[in-house]
Amino acid sequence: MRPLPSRRLHRLALTCVLVAAIAAGCKKGTEVESGAVLLELSLGGGVSTPDELQISVYAESGVLWKDQRVPGSGPLVPESATQLGTVLIQPGSAGGALRIHVRGLAASARVADGMLTIPDGSRGRFSLELDAAEPADGDGDGVPDAIDDCPAVDNPSQMGCPGTRDAGDGGGTNDANGGGDGGGTDVAPPTDGGGTDVFNCDASGACDRAIGSSCTDGAQCHSSFCVDGVCCANACIGPCRSCNQPNNDGVCLAYPQGSDPALECTGGMTCNGAGACGPSSTSPKPNGQLCSSPTDCTSGFCKDGVCCNAACDGTCRTCETGTCVNVSRKPDPPECYGTMTCNAAAKCVVQ
């Protein structure tokens, strides 16, 4: 498969042509460079088998590939009813995390999607399951919210939120706004001399405030959601949940079971601990639903108050949409919060 002309350093190749019968020959003939990713693709239950894939890959530098067809021509021939095959992604000199979106189509109609964020420094073999749920794309830029580097702003180039990148100051390590400090040290965003972050607010008062910051209107927030007086990761709609619980400003969490601090329940009911009024449900929840413990979730993972597709451990990792992704250029409460924030490389540093 030929790469896009604008990214000659990068190659996207389909290994094994997704046909098990020629797997051995394909592996021998495929050059795998250092830093490559082998992506093993499978289908979730009840998903129609696609006859082609479209793969998009994004890095800190922007778009590496956009809707690259796999295979290059002809129909896709899966290895089995559930295993599609393996894709080789060789990003060349592209640094930082890789964000991957795989879309399956049948007769040119969408049937499944899968998304994955591979942290900076992590390469090798990864598994990705495509499922029937269509991913949210709130800003309509063609990049699913779960991997969009600026989910509230239409930015198909994926070069960061407008106004949050500087030109750097001589190279070095990424600083909090995507530039460098010339000496390998993360540095604070520049200010206007009066303590105001120039990448956070402009002269008119319009802002791009981080999750957890105080607000009065969604237009002030990076996420576009202002809930309970703070910029929230999502709309946090419904009773028995809030976005400003102690030490968790910006994260939509359910109130504890049996409580009702906002007096939202009626008929003598209280909160069920899962973001609703009434008795606690014993049915496991799908990814993306509010949870209070891993046992609430079909996946067995509860992160940031949401059922997650993975454990999503560590700082600067979040599962606010149900898919574990890196956090960059904003705080990650409660792990990276207060005087700390996640920089462009998804590392928790002092502001």
Ends apart, CA distance between termini: 43 Å
Succession of helices and strands: EHEEEEEEEEEEEEEEEEE
> In CATH, what is the class of the domain at 11-130?
Mainly Beta
Helix content bin: under 10%
Specify the CATH architecture of the domain at 11-130.
Sandwich
Mind telling me the C-alpha Rg?
A: 22 Å
The strand count comes to: 18
CATH fold-level topology of the domain at 11-130: Immunoglobulin-like
Which sheet architecture does the biggest sheet show? Answer: 4 strands, mixed
Low-confidence stretches: 1-31, 164-200
Mean pLDDT: 74
- Individual helix count: 1
Q: Which class of secondary structure composition applies to the elements?
A: mainly beta
**In what range is the share of β-strand residues?**
15-25%
Shape: globular
Strand order of the largest sheet: 1-5-2-8
Provide a short characterization of the protein structure.
The protein is mainly beta and 351 residues long.
Structural overview:
It is globular, with a radius of gyration of 22 Å. It is 2% helix and 24% strand. Among the domains are: 120 residues, Sandwich (Immunoglobulin-like); 70 residues, no CATH class. The N and C termini lie far apart (43 Å). The protein has a four-stranded mixed beta sheet with strand order 1-5-2-8. Strands 4-3-6-7 form a four-stranded antiparallel beta sheet, with no helix packed on it. It has a two-stranded antiparallel ribbon with strand order 9-10. The N terminus is likely disordered. The chain has 351 residues and is an all-beta fold. Strand 17 and strand 18 form a beta hairpin. The longest helix is centred in the N-terminal third of the chain and has 7 residues.
